Every structure is written in C-alpha cells, then in structure tokens.
Predict the structure.
Amino acid sequence: MQTTEAFVGLDCIDCGERFDAETATHNCPDCGGILDPAYDYDALDLSREDIEAEPFDSLWRYDALLPFPREAAVSLGEGATPLVECPNLADAMGVGEVYFKDEGHNPTGTFKDRGQTGAMTAAAQHGADTVALNTAGNAGQSSAAYAARAGMDAHVWLPERAGYTQKAMVEVHGGELHVTEGEITDAGTAYAEAIADEDWYSTKTFVTPYRHETKKSMVYETIEQLDWEVPDAVVYPTGGGVGLVGMHKGAKEFRELGLTDELPAMYAAQAEGCAPVVRAWEEGKEIHEAWGDENITTVLNGIAVPDPGASPLILNALKESGGGAVATSDEAVLDAAIDIAQTEGLEMGATCAAAASGAFKLAEEGELGEDDTVVLLNTGAGNKDVDTLRSHLGEREFDAAE
Ligand SMILES: *Cc1c(COP(=O)(O)O)cnc(C)c1O
Ligand SMILES: [Zn+2]
C-alpha cells in the first residue's frame, strides 16, 4: 500500500483503538465505530510557503496531510475550486464579506468528487475491483465516474427522487444503477441486502474512512485563498455532514501545525422539512434522533438525510468551533438560489442554497456580525438541479402575476 509519511493509521472514534490501514478498510473491526485517519503531526514540517509552492491543480496538492501520495491518487483533477467574492450578498446580509466556495467546478459538478477520489484511491490500494454505495444521487454519479477512471465496476443505489442527471450519468459512466422506492434510507436497506453476499468495496459515507478525509481540503483551500485568514463563519448545507466534519478536522490540523491560530465557526444548514441535526443542536443533544421518513417534506434531495450516522461528529464540530445549526423553508432556500443567480450571476445548486438562506437567517438573528467574513459552501452546480430551480422560478412568476 502506498501511503504518506505522516499517516500512521486509522483511529476508531468510539473505542479509541488504532488500526493498520492495510488491514482495516472500513468501520472499526472491534466495535463497528467510524475510523478516522491519524497522522504524526510532530513529524511534519510544513510551512505556508511549502504549501503555496504546490501547483493549485487538485486537492492532491495537500497530500502531505492526506493518507495517500499524489502518485497513488485515482484523480480527475477534483478540488482547486474558485472562492468568489459576493459584494451584493454581503450588503443584503449585512455582514463584512461573503465568499462563495464554488464546488460546482468539480469533475462531476459537486464536491462529492472530493470524497470519491479518497475512497476510490483506497479501494485501488486495497485491490478492489467493484465498489458499491447508496446515495441521494450526486455521490453515485461521482462514484461511477471514479470507478470508470480506476477501471472498476460500480453499483449505485439511489431513491426515486434523485434527479434525472444523477441517474443518467451513473449509467453513462458504465455504473450499475439500482433505483429504489422511498428515501435514501430505503436505498440503504436495498444496498445492504445486496452487498451482504458480495465482496464489493463500500464507498459509502462514513463507512469508508476516506471520504471526509479528502474533503478536509475545502477548508485548506479556503484559508489559503483568503491569504491565510480564517473566515469567521462557514455555512454548510448538511446531510450526512461529511464535508462539515472534514473541514473542521482540516481547520484543527492547520492550527496544530501553526499555520493558523483560529478555527472557523462551522454552521450546519438544513431544510425545515428534514432537520435532524438542527433539532438535536437546539435541544442540546450529543446525538440526533432519526427524522421520520414520513415527515420528510423537502425537495432538496442532497440534504434529505433523515438518519445521519455521524451526527455526534457533526454536533461536536459545531460546538468545538463555536458555530451552530439553522433550518429554513424550501421556499426561502430556492428563493435564495434564484436571487443569487440574478444578483451575483452565480449558479447555486438547489440543495446548496440552504447555506445561503441559512446564512441570511443567522445574520438576522445576530449570529453573524457586520464585520464577519462568511463563506457559503456551494456544494454543487446549479445546473444539476435545473428542474427544481426552474419550477420554483415559474411559481414565483405565477405568484407575482396573481
Ligand atoms: C451530498 C450533498 C450535500 C450534503 O453533504 P454531506 O457532506 O453529506 O452533509 C450537500 N449538497 C450537495 C449538492 C450534495 O450532493
Ligand atoms: Zn472501535
């Protein structure tokens, strides 16, 4: 297995045991907990200049802080996305500055590519020939793309409600598409039944230890793009919380290495129609309670995740960073996406716009101050959700004409 110098193994977040990454591939062999890549930070001598000297071409520029070296990566050039200033949005929100981390620039149009490059590199290192996962949609498309790149087969389970683009592109990449009735949880049940008799390699959220790991790079890039200034707040459209947990870990690493002094306050933005993390946060709990499938009333597929298994990690990141959680209505979310498209010209995914409407609400509540620098994660391209956005525009026009 090709690994980096500082990478020392996988730590179980529940029992604390450390495992060799060669043999432990997914959840903790002892207790089933989530495994988290660990590093010997003391052995790392990494300066801002060292990092800046790497070409800004993909997230593998940060491979000193990742488990695998660039040469081993199954990569499509993911990451290295723009950070775009939004003066009109900052004015409207009443905060100092707003930046838009535009993950729509990734190979398959969402930040899921940042996770899949890590998971698929691990799969290749472990000699896998078939990968499998259940997903709300975007991770499935991404997984099929990276499997194609690695010369592997991909099996993808997703719920009916996933978009046409995501379903179609799984097949275009040569993946095996399984569409299930119900929600992402039902897709998960079908996936688990199918995978039980196979030796397929899972690239599922927080089952592979590597998806949140390569998503750390979003915070590294953001801080570097802000000339090493740590933003006051990052607002993140939260489903399973992979990127949020990863970004918080990355921010702590930069601080540990002496590259920065602070942590950005992480905010989880959800839809009112499926907000298990926000509910747990508001009730001061350390773990969520599942949101009943029958109570899911949001059209925002990417964050319609009723039972996020890593909620203790998410809630801990919110607390440790001094952030919080916020839910807004689908109407507010889709309005925000359209307003941003019209005032800033930026294409925000429907799901992603929960970060924008959430930030507006946080600003109104005084959580974000007038001098704050706020980063909105645009987790995916607007044109992946074109149907949802266009139909909301139609409703707005209809209402205006009434
Ligand atoms: C998956 C997804 C999310 C949610 O990401 P998590 O890391 O699982 O919370 C948000 N937006 C888009 C576009 C997604 O595809
Ligand atoms: Zn364990």
